[in-house]
């Protein structure tokens, strides 16, 4: 009987083997990963078509549909959800995005409204299963009514303190009836938000650090009231902003004739800094004259002038000695857009009328200093000059740690 049971055992093992093979095949079919073998694929997905067509009117679709030539990674790029790859304008909240492998459906949170022009933007970064991202995006414009307005608000968003264009800034234009239109700036900070009807709009640029397409507490921003149609492109100058005044936090000795002050908030660059607004005295209450107040831009210009003076002196010495001196190369022109207004800052340099006494204690007072918020205040700080031959301190050792409140939303 044992001999007769062997064929049955072999049959059972065969059934188990076939079951394992079937299970593995089913798991392979269910996997969303790339197929094995073949040449390595580095090509991003290709957008085949979009429905409805751009500039279409009287659209009655339930969603805008994007068709691709391959399966899309539903996590997007850098672990971003595919929902964050789309902007719907006007916005009524986070859009509803339906993922169907090589097809993506996009609709407003509460559906398309009648007689409304919509802009749907596919942002750069959508990737395939091999994480090959699309380098550029695309935009479609259509209307659920018979017409599409032609007005747009255009401009450039800047990182104001860095004096550089701000790519990927979130742009919002809010109408008087609180309809929010969205756009994103390109790699050079340029943006166009619309189509819009004529009227007054509150336009805001936000450094969208978490890529959630809405302004959050602590993110740098700027706002501007703009009338459409506009006379010229606008500048949005993002910076860290709140409603609090700026207070003096450190007083550091740069050298015996220069004192550098640091504040806990950005200062309004449009204000004047007369020396009379600064008072410096020692422990004996004898005032130290302040001959000039320099902003960081003034310090940079002074450093360039000194470098140029040193280079001119070297050229003259070489000329007198008969040594050849190469002509300095002219740097290429910088075509990067720059803000038309000087940037804000939180440091000021005081030029002193006489040198500080080593190892002596001093107190500096600042009156009527205006923060970027527009608030004015006065504050003061004590410090000690370094000992003779010692390196100047990099920070005020008497300053208590101060926690800067996060900027609030306007």
List the helices and strands and how they pair.
Layout (H helix, E strand, L loop, with lengths): L1 H29 L16 E5 L12 E5 L17 E4 L6 E5 L2 E5 L9 E6 L15 E6 L7 E9 L4 E2 L4 E5 L5 E5 L5 E7 L2 E8 L14 E8 L5 E5 L9 E8 L2 E10 L10 E5 L7 E5 L1 H26 L23 E8 L8 E10 L5 E9 L26
Parallel strand pairs: 8-15
Antiparallel strand pairs: 1-2, 2-5, 3-6, 4-5, 6-7, 8-9, 8-12, 10-11, 10-13, 13-14, 16-17, 17-20, 18-21, 19-20, 21-22
Report on this structure:
The chain has about 400 residues and is mainly beta. The chain folds into three domains: about 45-150, Immunoglobulin-like, CATH 2.60.40; about 150-240, Immunoglobulins (Immunoglobulin-like, Sandwich); about 240-300 and about 340-410, Immunoglobulin-like (Sandwich). Helix content is about 15%, strand content about 35%. The chain has helices at about 1-30, 295-320; strands spanning about 45-50, 65-70, 85-90, 95-100, 105, 115-120, 140-145, 150-160, 165, 170-175, 180-185, 190-195, 200-205, 220-230, 235-240, 250-255, 260-265, 280, 290-295, 345-350, 360-370, 375-385. The chain has a four-stranded antiparallel sheet with strand order 1-2-5-4, with no helix packed on it. Strands 8, 9, 12 and 15 form a four-stranded mixed sheet that branches. The chain has a four-stranded antiparallel sheet with strand order 11-10-13-14, with no helix packed on it. The longest helix is centred in the first third of the chain and has 29 residues, at about 1-30. The N and C termini lie far apart (about 90 Å).
